[in-house]
């Protein structure tokens, strides 16, 4: 990815503030000449993450921020926040990424409560695909939680915030034996600071997230981190079927497997979880198919295609459609992602050409 100059971007409202950085809405400046790398981003919805000035001189924090940039650069995937490049301005590191305007899974749980199980199946399909990509590149997220699952307005899930991710190709920037992560979603081996931690820790966190999405509550309800750690380490997790009566047994079982204390007892990898979600989509007819009344009059209509005949992204489409409606309701009916400027320009050009052709045809007819 290219080195970017912060002066080529205009910072907008603050989107979020973390312990080491602030995220701003951003766009490429059009009131001055900018570098080609920045100009290529004109029309994109951007967010810019800047390291706080108060911590910019901390070498360890700088190293972690640079590591996050390197990880995002490697992980190009539809369900991972897009990364466009970064740099340094007056000793402040920054990077430019995709802006996602649909909120987070956490926001939606807090505003709307528990999700229906078809929605959770589609979210799980998307998140497990993102995790498999990360694990294929030897990256363990270590902080998977509803607040780090971002949503576009049309219900595409984007895994973000790789600030404490572990890159197995490089030395760990966390002291050996130190616990990192969010207490409610941490696997037992993450709590004990196991130096052989693997992607199975992310699968445990995914199980915690799916349980919370379905029930509206966390797996364990300890009042402080000590109680939570003890529960994650020793208490048997409840089954989601105890709280949600209509959840498919396949979904109940895979969540329970994710929450196994031993990494060896969890699913083989994230792809295996994705496969379960696709199978549930097929078995329970979750493919997002058009109006069945139209299909009745057309034997070749797509609505007559069975779920196993559609692509993987369509197998759980009904859940995505339900999630999109929830997002729209929370945002007050805000439309989908804005149309890029280049596409608007093409549309306007086509309209102008059509008008000119019509005028010439009228003159010829006269």
TrEMBL record:
Question: Which range is the signal sequence, renumbered to this chain?
Answer: none
Give UniProt keywords alphabetically. Answer: ATP-binding, Kinase, Membrane, Nucleotide-binding, Transferase, Transmembrane, Transmembrane helix
Which Pfam family is one of this chain's hits? Pkinase
SUPFAM superfamilies associated with the record: Protein kinase-like (PK-like) (SSF56112)
Which InterPro entries does the entry mention?
Kinase-like_dom_sf (IPR011009), Prot_kinase_dom (IPR000719), Ser/Thr_kinase_AS (IPR008271)
Domain of life, per lineage: Bacteria
- Sequence intervals crossing the membrane: 341-361
Residue stretches making up the Protein kinase domain:
9-278
| UniProt name for this protein | Protein kinase domain-containing protein
- Give the lineage: Bacteria, Pseudomonadati, Planctomycetota, Planctomycetia, Pirellulales
């Amino acid at each position: 990815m290219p080195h970017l100059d912060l002066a080529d971007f205009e910072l907008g409202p603050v989107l979020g503030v973390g312990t080491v950085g602030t995220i701003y809405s951003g766009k490429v400046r059009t009131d001055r000449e900018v570098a080609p790398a920045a100009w290529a981003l004109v029309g994109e919805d951007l967010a810019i993450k800047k390291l706080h000035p108060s911590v910019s001189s901390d070498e360890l924090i700088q190293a972690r921020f640079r590591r996050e940039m390197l990880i995002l650069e490697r992980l190009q995937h539809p369900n991972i926040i897009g990364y466009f490049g970064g740099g340094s301005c007056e000793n402040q590191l920054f990077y430019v990424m995709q802006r996602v305007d649909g909120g987070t899974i956490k926001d939606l749980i807090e505003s709307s409560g528990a999700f229906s199980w078809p929605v959770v199946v589609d979210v799980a399909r998307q998140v497990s695909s993102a995790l498999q990509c990360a694990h294929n590149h030897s990256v363990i997220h270590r902080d998977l939680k509803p607040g780090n699952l971002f949503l576009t307005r049309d219900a595409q899930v984007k895994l973000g915030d790789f600030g404490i991710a572990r890159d197995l190709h490089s030395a760990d920037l966390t002291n050996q034996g130190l616990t990192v992560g969010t207490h409610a979603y941490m696997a037992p081996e993450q709590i004990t600071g196991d130096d052989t931690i693997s992607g199975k820790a992310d699968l445990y966190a995914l199980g915690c997230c799916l349980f919370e999405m379905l029930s509206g509550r966390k797996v364990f309800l300890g009042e402080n981190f000590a109680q939570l750690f003890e529960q994650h380490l020793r208490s048997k997790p409840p089954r989601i079927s105890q709280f949600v009566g209509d959840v498919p047994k396949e979904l109940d079982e895979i969540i329970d497997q994710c929450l196994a204390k031993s990494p060896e007892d969890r699913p083989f990898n994230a792809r295996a979880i994705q496969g379960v979600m696709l199978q549930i989509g097929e078995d329970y007819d979750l493919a997002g198919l058009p109006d069945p009344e139209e299909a009745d009059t057309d034997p070749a209509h797509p609505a007559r295609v069975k779920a196993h005949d559609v692509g993987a992204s369509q197998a759980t489409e009904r859940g995505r459609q339900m999630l999109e409606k929830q997002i729209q309701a929370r945002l007050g009916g805000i439309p989908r992602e804005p149309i890029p400027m280049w596409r608007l320009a093409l549309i306007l050009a086509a309209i102008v050409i059509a008008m000119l052709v019509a005028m010439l045809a009228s003159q010829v007819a006269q």
